[in-house]
């Protein structure tokens, strides 16, 4: 193998920089000492064992799952229709709509959070899981639109035209031709929007009231040094779950892509 | 792009849910924010007489000005560092790497974890008794823990440069990918060596990607709350912390609304200036 | 005036892993000639062109340009310039900056650059369009800009990679003439790669026909058409009826052959297809067959048959005829002089040929 180029070496160093914090969490979650510092005192699984018995933690987890799931479906649904419209149709205001739908990505979190809090209170909606779902869906729509736009981009229109030509109607074509082909994109969108919601903190912090999501729960634990190892264990579990979701999404996408090639 | 005939209304109907949802949640809260910014907070209640008192207070309070400017500068530094470090990676993956999807995956995996956790991890790394110091002490490279690592602007910039990495890499990667390889061959054919090719052809063609990356990083960073809270200490506080206090402990929502709007305007202005100047600089490359 | 060939390829090979794209390619090109590399997709012609340009290095063999060995010399330092198939117009530069691109690398004075750009654009009939944006150009205009950009560099050799394939028919035909005229006026060597035989024939001084990485024949268009060296070349250039035949005698410049259906015939020897085999293939061009309802006096031999299919091309009419004693149908074409289609499917006709127009295609390998 030829000597790796300077660029390749730089890339590897950069990757190390990217992975450093993320690998440290699991590393110290097995540490029997209570501070995250070298040298490692000993190895233990205690901190993980304790996770399962903490009711507040499990409640927060449940909340995150509910919020994530609803957000995923809501955002993916809206994104699916919007993406198809952007790629297939011409209509006045299309460019404006496309731009608008991407806005949540660039508005600073604090502004979204404060303005939504103000809005919901004004219409009488108290902070709760519902408000979090509304907020998270807002954040997740651009992700869904971006993923599904590229799914539709690669989609050959003449496939649908052939379906019409063979006698199928619009709904049937959508169900038998479009949907199966775009399915990997839909799954990817569901997984991405779920993860966006699952990991999101600022909006949830402002909007969740008395039912915290997991990140909000973690935030509340951060200020207690004694709870550090627990927090590390929880964080590592969260990490693992997120990565697994990604890997599953990727495998799924590839298998579908091969099947359709 | 083939559009099925006569389906303008179809297109609009399909795009409607997303557009309306996002539009409403942008427009209405904004309108309410504006309304609140024109009201004032009395001890218990909100006085709804329209007044510009909040704006006056914001403009005259040196702390607000200071935090706003500092937030913009920190965000600027983060943007610069992140994009500069990210460009070579995007270049490597787009033009040199063979298994691009694998590399992109590798880049994004660390970020499939909670942002909060990552900032927390940096807090652990940079702390006085933290990972970095204890490792260096253990290895005998320093005698006393370094104190400049945490609770200041350096920590904020480093943490955010890490957090925004994929958001910088991906847009630049996409615009590098789009470059028709025959353009680079044509440049070679006309006498350009590798560096000249990069500066005269590749770089100008990636300006849109670079601008997108800069905006995606700069704008949200100005209003970031978590990072300055956890690793900023008192030196590293940013405007978002002040805003959060108004909605929390200080219970002055009108002022909070005012600060939010001012922050948005400031960011918008800076972003516009940036896009225009980078855009025209890029156009001058021949 | 150079004493040596402008381009020489000596036994050039190019392998990509287990796949051999070009094998044993040897070629000599004279200065000022318009040379085409012709062949079906995948035959290696583009790879050969790219090796001359310097975008690929040969796996074996040498390439010399103007007497200089190009081994190890990268593309940006060769005295060649290329017009790319996709034109590769820089989208971020206007027409003038595109054409000036190569000049700006070389430290030439600004005033001189402007002058040369203007001249180059004038040469391709795009004078005055310096400020036009790249995105505002039509296909034909993009092609001319690519041409101007390459020519402004005053290369010793201009390489063209399927330059006309993206244009519509009328534009293509017009550009064929223009490119040829341009080349003659400039006196530079042009090397063009194309899969279109008519394009190659109308524009080139000489053509090199390639199949599967190897050069089959290098000749003028007339010679290639009249004396193809084997069946592949014969069928690739123009239409050709190919039939088996057996040689009964060889003497001097002629052969006596026995053609099933037609009988015995004396034909000329093909210096490009030397063979001593008894079983050979022969070819007859469709336009050299006479088709008539009755047996006329014309021709050396004739066979009766039935019209299977009539193809009307406007200028010519092609008849596919199933022949008695000949195992596959033959195609005869006649000019559409009188604007009548004389024979219909199902008609009984006579096809007559002259020995002088039957081409010896060498050993029958099928």
Query: Helical content of chain B, roughly?
Result: over 70%
Q: What is the CA-atom radius of gyration of chain C, in angstroms?
A: 25 Å
Q: What portion of the residues of chain C fall into strands of 2 or more residues? A: 35-45%
Q: CATH fold name of the domain at 59-102 and 153-283 in chain B, please? A: MetI-like fold
CATH superfamily of the largest domain in chain C: P-loop containing nucleotide triphosphate hydrolases
Distance N to C terminus of chain B: 32 Å
Choose one word for the global shape of chain C.
elongated
Helix count from the secondary structure assignment of chain B: 14
Give a brief rundown of this model.
Chain B is an all-alpha fold and 286 residues long.
Written overview of the protein:
The complex is a heterotrimer of chains A (261), B (286) and C (366). Chain A is mostly helical. Chain A contains eleven helices and no strands. In chain A, helix 6 packs across helix 8. The two termini of chain A are 33 Å apart. By secondary structure, chain B is mainly α. Chain B has 14 helices and two strands; from the N terminus they run H-E-E-H-H-H-H-H-H-H-H-H-H-H-H-H. Chain B has helices at residues 8-37, 53-60, 62-96, 100-108, 115-126, 131-138, 153-163, 165-177, 181-189, 194-205, 207-222, 226-231, 239-247, 253-283, and strands at residues 40-41, 46-47. Mean pLDDT of chain B is 85; it is low at 1-5. Chain C starts with 6 loop residues before the first strand and ends with a strand. Chain C is elongated, with a radius of gyration of 25 Å. Chain C is an alpha+beta fold. Helix content of chain C is 23%, strand content 36%. Chains in contact: A-B, B-C. Chains A and B meet through helix 1, helix 3, helix 4, helix 5 and helix 6 of A and helix 1, helix 3, helix 4, helix 5 and helix 6 of B.
Describe this protein with a few key phrases:
heterotrimer, A: 261 residues, mainly alpha, MetI-like fold, globular, B: 286 residues, two-stranded antiparallel sheet, disordered N terminus
